[in-house]
Protein: Tyrosine-type recombinase/integrase
Organism: Nonomuraea helvata
Amino acid sequence: MASKDRSKTFRTKGLANAFMSDLRQAVKAGEEFDIATGLPVSMLAQKTSGPSFLEFGQAYVLRRWNTSAARTRETDTYALLTLIPVLVADGPRRPTAEELREVLRDHVLLPESRRTALSTAQAAALSWLERASLPLSELADANVLRTALDAISVTFAGAPAGANSVRRKRAVLHHLLEHAVEQKVFSSNPLDEIKWTVPKAVTVVDPRTVVNPAQARQLLDAVPKVGRKRGARLQALFACMYYAALRPEEAADLRLRNCTLPETGWGLIVLERARPQATKRWTNSGETHESRRLKHRADKETREIPIPPVLVAMLREHIAKYGSAEDGRIFTTSTGGTYSSSAHSSVWKEARKLALTPEQVASSLAARPYDLRHAAVSLWLNAGVPAPEVAKRAGHSVDVLLRVYAKCIDGQQEQVNSKINSALDL
C-alpha cells in the first residue's frame, strides 16, 4: 500500500502547484502521512470531518444563485467574504484577509462559468483556505459562533459596521445554518442559542426629510436647470417618484404601454417591472441594470397607481420631447441607456442648491431623490387616504406602511389636546 502511486486532478496548474508545495512542506516538517490516502495527517483530518465552512458556504451561494436577485447574490457573497476568512484554523503562511476575499469574490463564490482564471497567488490563497477552513460542525461551539458575530460587527477596515449591514450578514449566517439543520449537520440552529443582541436599525422615515408640496414643486422646477441635458431628461422621472410614489428602479423601467395619459384629468400607471441597479458580477445579463419583477410581487404581478393631472402633463411633455427607447422605456439617456443612481444623485444635489435655502441644503430635507417617494406617501396618509389604499399604490403591506411612516403621520395634536382639555374641564 505504502509504495502505491497516487494522483489527484486540479482545475488549474496553479492549484496543482500549491498542493505540491503543501506536500513538500509537510515532508520538510516531518509530518506523518496516511498510508491509505497518501495525505499528510493535517490534510486528512480536514477530509474526514464533514464539509468545511468554505465548502458549505460555496454550495449555499451556488444553490441559491438561479432563484436570487442580483442584490441578494451580492448580500450573500459579502456576508461570506466576512465569515469564511475568520472561520479558519491557525496555520503558517496565512494569506492576508484581502487576498482571501479576492479569491472568494472572483472565483469561489461565483458559478463556474463566471470565474476568473486563478493567478499563482490566488491559487496559493485558495489552497491555504481549503486546508484551514473549519469543519461546518464546529459552528456548534458557542466560541466559534461568537467569532463569526464579532467579524460581522466590523467593516473590512475594522471600523464598527452599520446596523443594517450587521443585520443583513447575521441573517445570511442564520439562513445558512438553517440549511445545515435541514441536512442533519445540526439538530437545531446553533445561532439561536447565542445570547447576542442584534443592533437596532432605523426602519422609520425621518419627518425632517419630507418636503411639503410647495417645496417639492420648487425642487422639480429646478431639476431642468441642472446640466445641459441630463437634468431636463430626469425631471419627469423625479416627478413620478413624488406624484406616484414610484421607486427609482420602477421609474427606470416605466414604459409607454404602462401609461394612460389623457389630455385632461387623472391618468393611470400600471407597473409591470422594475430595473434595479447592481454590480455586473451579480446580474444575469452581466449588465448594471436589468429588468425584473416588482419588489414584493410575484412574477407578472402588476401594481396600479392613479396619477394626478400635473404628472400626466409632465409625462406627455417628456414623451413628446424625448420619445422612448426601442423597448418602450420612457426614461433613458440620450443613447438609450439607463441613468445610474450616481447620476440621479448628482443632479438632485445641484437641484437642491438651486431650490432650497442654504440652511435647508445643509439639512436632511429631501437629501436623496428617494425622499420624494417618502414625501408622496406621507402626503397621501395625511390627506386622509385610507392606509390600505396608500399601501396598494405604494407597493407596501399595510403593517409595513404604518410602521415605516409612523413619524410622518400628522397626529392632529391640537385636536387631541383640545379633547383632553374638554375632558379635564368636566
Observations:
- Residues 163-182 form the longest helix (20 residues).
